[in-house]
Amino acid sequence: MILTGLALTLVAAVAIAWFAFPLPIDILHPGEGGGLVMDSEGGPILDVVADDGQRRLHLQIEDSGPWIGNAIVATEDLSFRSHVGVDPLAILGAMRDNVIAGRVVRGASTITMQVAGLKMGHPRTIPGKTVEAFRALQIEQRYEKDDILEAWMNLASFGGNLVGAETASRAWFGKSLAECSLPEAALLAGLPNSPERFRPDRHPEAARGRRDLVLDRMLNARMIDETQHRHAVMSPIVLQNERETENLRHAGWMALRSAGRGRAVETTIDPTAQSILERIVADHAAMLPRDLDIAVVLVETATGEVRGLIGSSDPLDPRDGQVNGTTARRSPGSALKPFIYAAAFEAGRLAPDSIVDDVPIDISGWRPRNIDRGHRGPMPAGEALQTSRNVPAILITRDLGLDTVEATLRRSGLPLPIGALSAAGLTAAVGGVEVRAIDLAEAYATLARGGIHRSVRLLRGAPSPTRRVFSESTCAAIEACLAGPESDVSAAMPFVAAKTGTSSGQRDAVAAGWNRRWTAVVWVGRFDGGRNPSLIGATAALPVLREILLDPAFATSRSPRDFEPWDVVHAVGRVGPPRVPAIIEPRDGDRLIFDDGPCLFRPRFRIGTAAHVFLDGAPIDHTEPSFAISPGAHELRIVEAGKPPHAVRFEVVRPR
User: Fold this and answer.
1) Residues designated catalytic
2) How many domains, in total, are found in the chain?
3) What is the CATH number of the domain that holds 645?
4) Residue 313 gets which letter from DSSP?
5) Which domain holds residue 500?
6) DSSP string, 13-34
7) What is the mean pLDDT of each run of 10 residues along the chain (656 residues)?
């Protein structure tokens, strides 16, 4: 009767407590996560602790691999799958062993009780264990066994500030828990019993003994066979040497912000490419004034993957080293001009041989100048882009319209703030808007890809979708302008198409370019926005870009893309009313080769009805489809009232 009364009293107490002290809704939550960011080969580049100072990576049990679950059950709670939260037989056995030994030599906590204790921090006393047992009953009533085992994997301490099996696996073996072998999983499962005593780097023999004990228990429980056991106990313990790269701290934080905390994140950063960038940047930074920083983005053009990134050339600087230059908005100077010309080419309003004006202009008191403070007069559009003349770019922007230019920049990959071009006006053509280096790399990759846009990405995963922005012919024409034989840039970089930029007041130096595989952007400047007379794109940023894209690891052979000449419907970039070029073909300096038979000359014009055409000084009817012409040197000239004459010289030859 007494026992019955005690039993009824206990049941009643538990029932009252069950409703009086409901189970906390976050009982299985692993807590705030930290973060681990890795390069493309799994090497750590950033390890972030949670606010409580713990290294904690969240894990789902389906991602834990084939061994760790059984290893934990065999080590901590063999009857886990069958009990209801507490194990009466284990409690009686522990009481017996402890009484015989005269001290505590064995516990009876189940995995579920341990989860309650790890989450709620109960003291290791009889009252504390009683509360754990009560909570374990509540947990088992609400959650599945796998949920509880997953919580144990995420909450258990593995020594130092390592919390969770995934965290420990990354720290000790440099791999995910799912990739761990049987002996590695057994070592991890044995650590929480006494993390410091079995710490594998300080006490390798103790760790090995504990691992083998776990393997013995797995064998006795028939979780593994004799062969697996024998191979596992013979395996050496191989630990990884943790490493972090200060120059990749900025990339790590970018990746962590995108993916969220509490997990291990694999990036697209190639450690070999990154080390090359770091070497090149360090060499050039040593030659620059000390207050200048360098930021670099290297993108694999085909995939859009960021393979190398340096946010600051001095990441250890307590102030500037904290700034990520690849995501800071800075003036690109003239680096946006290729997109302005591409928009005009694409609209059929300009061709590389169209004439544009580089002359003094006054726009409501603004008198833009070139970097050489001079003007060259009417000139071909391709040459104007090659030599980065400001006035033609401003006039083309005016004639196309700010809305058209803004739409082109956005579609290319530059997410400009709303109203940015409206606020900047025509100064946008010469760097009056601010962009991020990583976005500029995305836009230049669009040109390098032949007009197909693809978002750049820093996290490993499926490639981003694509869309066509420009025709292949437009991009080939832009490339010819930037890498043609008359370009100062291509003279220094014969296998690269590149464009430089210098912001107003010499506050930013930019170089952006591509070869057949890589796209890169280099920014040089002061993070506080101060000016420096050495900040000129062609001398401060271009040498860095040149060395990167011509490094043996990145260099590609030159294979120019051809583009078809196109008619221009309404020319842009002139001070006066838009005017089309008079002679489309032949171009000045052409050499026309004719086989045997009559030499039938078929020029192409775009002229008004009042124009007169002269061949070697004699008038001809330009409405005729062809003319007979003899071998030798010739001049074709257009004369139209009110407009400058347009003439080209060419040669007609027969093969020998």
Assistant:
1) 76, 334
2) 3
3) 2.60.40
4) S
5) 329-549
6) HHHHHHHHSPPPTTTT---S--
7) 59 62 78 84 83 87 93 91 79 58 60 86 70 80 92 90 92 91 95 92 93 95 94 92 63 79 86 93 91 94 95 80 88 95 92 88 84 85 92 92 91 88 86 94 96 93 88 92 60 72 90 95 92 89 94 82 64 64 74 79 75 86 83 86 76 81
